[in-house]
Design goal:
The complex is a heterodimer of chains A (about 110) and B (about 120). Chain A is about 0% helix and about 55% strand. Chain A is mainly β and about 110 residues long. In chain A, β4 and β5 form a beta hairpin. Chain B starts with a strand and ends with a strand. The mean pLDDT of chain B is about 90. The chains are: A mainly beta (about 110), B mainly beta (about 120).
């Protein structure tokens, strides 16, 4: 079974802190994604990566950056956390862009 | 660009009753369609998908969805729901070619099954 793990289920950070969210997949998938999920807005794509060291902006990249140094790991970085970045963050991986995406359990981030 | 509309944010239904969750999409190109389900405190998982062939697709737990190209819809149905079907359901599309190859999700429908 594909497994996508995220480093934390719950995280509380202060405004202005640098925040790292880590995601690891164990199925050698080429593609990895970061979404944020907010009530009434569904899932919105922040960034995705189709290869090591490759990244593309999604629909809402502002305030975020990503890093993919190894195929199995995709990190989301909030350079200076703000309260409007309080949200659920979901990581996903996929063997190909039209194939099923496999999701991690999510990290609920609260910025105070 | 694509967009997905799920008109119902919440659908309450009694156990063993039928249910339909509506999904309409807009796209200038042909798309593949997906339904994902999110159980409480979990990530999303694929429920079913339409890529080609028969327009009626089924999941292993009794859900089905029918692709209607003329109405640009992909509604999800189940003839008899169970308490364990309580979850949030997301419709999503991805263009068959070009268009950025990104999944576009709807805003979700919370299905609440009551006794």
């Amino acid at each position: 079974d594909v497994k996508v793990t995220q480093s934390s289920r719950y995280l509380v950070k202060r405004t202005g802190e640098k925040v790292f969210l880590e995601c690891v997949q164990d199925m050698d998938h080429e593609n990895m994604f970061w979404y944020r999920q907010d009530p009434g807005l569904g899932l919105r794509l922040i960034y995705f990566s189709y290869d090591v060291k490759m990244k593309e902006k999604g629909d809402i990249p502002e305030g975020y950056s990503v890093s993919r140094e190894k195929k199995e790991r995709f990190s989301l970085i909030l350079e200076s956390a703000s309260t409007n970045q309080t949200s659920m963050y979901l990581c996903a991986s996929s063997p190909g862009l039209i194939y099923e995406q496999y999701f991690g359990p999510g990290t609920r981030l609260t910025v105070t | 660009a694509q967009s997905v509309t799920q008109l119902d944010s919440q659908v309450p239904v009694f156990e063993e009753a039928p249910v339909e969750l509506r999904c309409n999409y807009s796209s200038s190109v042909s798309v593949y369609l997906f339904w994902y389900v999110q159980y409480p405190n979990q990530g999303l998982q694929l429920l079913l998908k339409y890529l080609s062939g028969s327009t009626l697709v089924e999941s292993i737990n009794g859900f089905e969805a029918e692709f209607n190209k003329s109405q640009t819809s992909f509604h999800l149905r189940k003839p008899s729901v169970h308490i364990s079907d309580t979850a949030e359901y997301f419709c999503a599309v991805i263009p068959e070619a070009g268009g950025g190859n990104k999944l576009t999700f709807g805003t979700g429908t919370q299905l609440k099954v009551e006794l």
